[in-house]
Amino acid sequence: MKFRLLSLSLLVALSSLGSCQRSRAVGPPKAVAVRSDGAIELNLMSFNVRYENPGDLDDHAWRQRVTGAVRMIRREAPDIIGVQEALHGQAADLWASLPDYEFFGIGRDDGLRAGEYSGIFYRKERFKPDPDDHGTFWLSDTPAVVGSRTWGNEIPRVAAWIRLIDLSTMRGFYVFNTHWDHRNQESRERAALLIAQRIDTRKQVDEPVTLIGDFNSLLSNPGIVYLTGKSGVVAGSKQSWSNGLSDAYQTLHSNEKNHSTTLHFWKGSREGEVKIDHILVSRGAKIEAAEIVSDDKPVVSDHFPVTARILFPLTK
Question: What percentage of the chain reaches a pLDDT higher than 70?
Fold first, then answer.
């Protein structure tokens, strides 16, 4: 699938959709510090932005939230952001307001601009995209068919991926970003199997991976259990994945109870265990920090963003 970036002309055409759009100044490239140990150090974020719903009023409306969302991203300073639920205008608002980032993604309805994006922002001075290793696939029996849905979900679901070259080490790694169905469990379990298969068959199979997303699943869900390498019944059969990933937040906060909610339904509270937004990373990664970002008032979405700071060490 063709590599797509939002263009300046498109942003001008969409200028009425948000208050944060502005011209993007082009300056000299920034220097990139080179790590002597060869490790890839990444600050990651998963952020369900809440789609621009006309029924969301007052502080919940996107036009009111977008400034806070941009402020939050600048404060947290992630290197890579997986966004979910972003409609085209929302993706354009964020991209125009974050000039240090590039964006990759397409609309799930038509493979162009219609429908929600599961898009990936990345720092353009730190990473170089592989022009031959990226794309979007639909979570269905026909993943190359735009808009396809064959697993019981009523709306299309997708995953996007991109291979990036870290300019501080000249090592490559993969970012996958997805948004699973919120109603159909079979769809979620089959999505886990398909994404794992795509990770297993990536072109540079020895390079590390991070899988970011709103999975609409707790850690106990069979789909997440499978992705984290544990044995369980998935799509009707007992299975495990030998290349299972590690959940960054769970690794550091395994004893945390009743304060890990990410889907808060505009309540602004972490109370409970409704954590459905996850950052999963290749085993062997060193997870240095992981947080649920919940301090912004008013809230920037009906989901709290999730962050992680990780190292992918150089392996011999």
Answer: 89
User: How far apart (Å, rounded) are the C-alpha atoms in residues 134 and 129?
Assistant: 8
Q: Angle at Cα 22 formed by Cα 19 and Cα 27, nearest 5°?
A: 150
pLDDT in tens, 70-79: 999 999 999 9
Distance CA 228, CA 241 (A): 8
Structure tokens at 248: 């960054």
How many whole angstroms separate alpha carbon 277 and alpha carbon 215? 6
Q: Name every residue whose Cβ is closer than 8 Å to that of residue 293 and which is 6 or more positions away in sequence.
A: 72, 76, 304, 305, 306, 307
Strands (E), the chain: 40-48, 80-86, 101-104, 117-123, 127-138, 158-166, 171-179, 209-214, 232-234, 237-239, 246-247, 277-281, 286-292, 306-312
Closest listed residue to residue 76, CA positions, set 310, 315, 311, 306? 306
Rounded to 5 degrees, φ, ψ at 59 are -65, -15
The tens digit of pLDDT for each residue in 263-273 reads 999 999 999 99
Residue 114 tokens read as 């219609």
DSSP string, 168-181: TTTEEEEEEEEE--
DSSP string, 195-206: HHHHHHT-SSTT
Cα separation, 206 vs 199, whole angstroms: 11
pTM over 0.85: yes
Helix crossing, 88-97 with 62-76: angle to 10°?
40
Residue type, 79: D
Cα distance between residue 201 and residue 272, in whole Å: 37
| Full DSSP string of 12-59 | HHTGGG-TT-------PPPP-PPPTT-PEEEEEEEEE-----TT--GG
CB 64 within 8 A of CB 58: yes
Burial of 236: CB neighbours in 10 Å, binned 0-12, 13-18, 19+? exposed
